[in-house]
Task: structure prediction
Amino acid sequence: MIEFDIEIDASGLICPLPLLRLKKGLMETENGGVIKVIATDPAAYLDIGVYTDQVGHKIIEFVKAEEKQIFYIRKGEKDERRKTKDERRKTKDGRLKTEY
Result:
């Protein structure tokens, strides 16, 4: 049994609600903390998997039992904040790219 800091029961919720509940839980958890997410939406595996890969968290265990999917997610060290539009447009020397 994996020890976890927060349990999120998203049973009966459909996309994007399980992912939004996970994001809220991550804000309440320190780096390295583990969140258990229970979901019944079949799309949750894809949504949560893509999100955790993009922002640097890790699914440390995934269990599929009957209608439920159970995720154990370790919060990563990466900052979850997205870059602003101007930050994405900056060149290596710090200038903004001009798009025409």
Observations:
- The radius of gyration is 16 Å.
